[in-house]
Amino acid sequence: MEALAESLIDSTCWKVPGFAVSFIADKKVAWEKSFGKRDVAKNLDAELDTVWNIGSITKTFTGALTSAAIDDKLVTLDTKLNSILTDFELQDSTASESTFRDLLTHRTGLPRHDMAWTYGASPSDIKDLAKKIRYLSPSKPFRYQADYCNWGYVLAGEALAVKAGKKNYGEYLQEKILTPLKMANTYHDTDTAIKAEKDKFAINYDLDLKGDAKPFKQGNNKVEELTCPAGCLASTVKDMAKFVAMMMPGAWNGSAATGGPQILSYPSLMSIAKAWEAYPNDMIGNCFVKKANCDAEMYTPDYGLGLFVGSYRGYRLVWHNGNVYGASASIMMLPDLGIGGVILTNMAGGNFGMMNFLLAGFDQFLGEQPWWNKAASCKLAKLLVTTPKPAYLSPTPKPTWTYSPTEYANTYSNPMYGTVTVSVDANTKNLKLAWNTGVTGELEPMDAPKAYNMPKKDTFNGKVTIPWMKHYAMPMPAYFPRGDDGKVMALGLPLEPGILPELVMFTHPRFVAEKPSACRSDCFLRSMVKRMQGLNQCEYMTHLYTCMQSKLCPIPTSLCQPMAECKVYPPSCGV
Q1: What pLDDT, on the 0 to 100 scale, is given for residue 291?
Q2: Cis peptide before 395 (omega within 30 of 0)
């Protein structure tokens, strides 16, 4: 294990600055150790009490918290979210009836929409999110197929806090999970963790264009406070070992729990690790990226309630990993055997190396010959740990269409993704882009390649820089669709791969200037989103009419004529 651990911190292999690992057997820590540096600049070693971001492993805690609420008879898996958050609604009206089971197994039809989380408008609170989530486009029909979505966990976790009468998810989690397990060095707020732990908190890193580790700026209280149930937690490997031990009450084959606090019922633990939803075969790296040779001893994954569910060497395997900017983490369990592992790191994107490290540790408990060694580890690293390269076209070929930059200059808005201001650079005459959270960039007119799935005209080649990753410019093509009057009506950006070739649309202010009522504004904006996704004029009018009728909104006189031309006849128009 020592040699294999070295492959993770090897500068020619995974390049992880530091990490800590713990293996648990029979509810006790069997082996734990730290490696490398928690802070490279200060030459501070990683230690067992170092605090690391754990990212989406927070979802496993949210699954556990939901189970605690079920044990307390506050909710069931079939409780509808709109029975707690009454303003909750999705674009797909059927999906508006989503239950906790739907949200926690990623089957609402929504894809990630992570850019709305990271750089977007940041709804003010959970009630505001429940109102605005309808503006995110789905990728699949409701309950058709799992599509990993952080927002579902945000809604479920905060709804639990509302139902329990708590201030927020963090307060409820502290009461039901963290305090009973004595997880004193686990935090649901990075800023608080950094203040409390000082230099015990690991610095997060990512690779720059030269392949060197660069630190990230950590802590964004506004975003973390709302999105906590999906990925905000920070913890130590010692605390996480307590959580993993609790998740394995003896063996999950009906035997009684042994030792340690057991805060969840046996049926709840079984429910968390039940394969509620099958995942597409390509979702999780094709057997952890072929497992070097990907034999039939591993199957993955289905999804439970905050845990992936599969098998390893004939035994049930449950796990989850976590990624936030500059940090990766994994927990894995063979729960029927009472064997588990935790690994926490301060480098982005090393999940497959870490997960296979844990499986190699499991082989030692099982008395199996490990298939994973340093050579295999570094071979996989060469496939996955690549230096990022700019993907935008450079230089941009001169477009064949006439470019008038002032046509595009304006401030465009999206209820979930926020505002983007487009201006004209006085020197280059190219467009400058400024997103609401400090993201800046440049747009240069071009003839769009076929791969962009955009019309040739009104398309721009772009690159943007985000505040905490200034060493890397991210590609960002853009498209400005025009209305029937020939004027620019929106800005489209490819911010969500799950809905491509559709774009996330930011509307021009002239389309949202008239707001006679909140009811009409809601329907108007939702219909505009549909319009940007390809509805023609009459489909747009029909969608707008249907939405307004369903909400009993008054139809403004100005819409009577265009609706009548599309054979839509609102009673209030006197037709």
Answers
A1: 45
A2: yes
Q: Is the dihedral of CA 506, 510, 515, 519 positive or negative?
A: negative
Q: Which residue has the tokens 């985000």?
A: 466
Closest to 164 measured CA to CA, from 274, 38, 71, 60: 71
Dihedral (CA of 428, 429, 435, 436) sign: positive
pLDDT at 352: 72
* Other beta carbons within 10 Å of 82: 17
Q: Can you give the pLDDT at residue 374? A: 72
Maximum pairwise Cα distance, the chain: 81
User: Most confidently modeled of 17-31, 65-79, 318-332, 559-573?
Assistant: 65-79
CB of 329 closer than 8 Å to CB of 35: no
Give the number of other CB atoms < 10 A from CB of residue 501. Answer: 10
- Which pLDDT belongs to residue 216? 77
Q: Which whole-number Å values give the CA distances from 7 to 15, 236, 357, 378, 468, in the listed order? A: 8, 22, 10, 7, 28
Residue 133, both tokens: 């989530």
Q: Rounded CA gap, 339 and 358, in Å?
A: 11
CB contact at 8 A, 71 and 265: yes
> 570: which 2 tokens?
């609102």
Nearest to 155 by CA among 123, 180, 118, 187: 123
Residues across the chain: 575
User: 493 and 503 in contact (C-beta within 8 Å)?
Assistant: yes
What residue has token string 């959970």?
Answer: 126
Q: Give ∠ CA 153-543-134 in degrees, rounded to 5.
A: 15
Q: In what order do the strands lie in the sheet with 298-303?
A: 44-45, 28-39, 18-25, 339-345, 327-334, 315-324, 308-312, 298-303, 277-278
- Lowest mean pLDDT across 235-244, 254-263, 302-311, 464-473: 254-263
Contact present, 412 and 44 (Cβ < 8 Å): no
DSSP 155-175: HHHHHHHHHHT-SSHHHHHII
Contact predicate 68/251, CB 8 Å: no
Residue 376 to residue 368: CA distance in whole angstroms? 17
Q: Which amino acid is at 25?
A: A
Burial (CB count within 10 angstroms: exposed 0-12, middle 13-18, buried 19+), residue 175: middle
pLDDT band at 218 (very low <50, low <70, confident <90, very high): low
Q: What is the pLDDT of residues 115-131, one digit of tens each?
A: 888 777 778 889 999 99
| Structure confidence at residue 289 as a pLDDT band (50, 70, 90) | very low
Ranked by mean pLDDT, the top range of 12-26, 84-98, 536-550 is 84-98
d(C-alpha 358, C-alpha 477), whole Å? 40
Structure tokens at 220: 């964004």
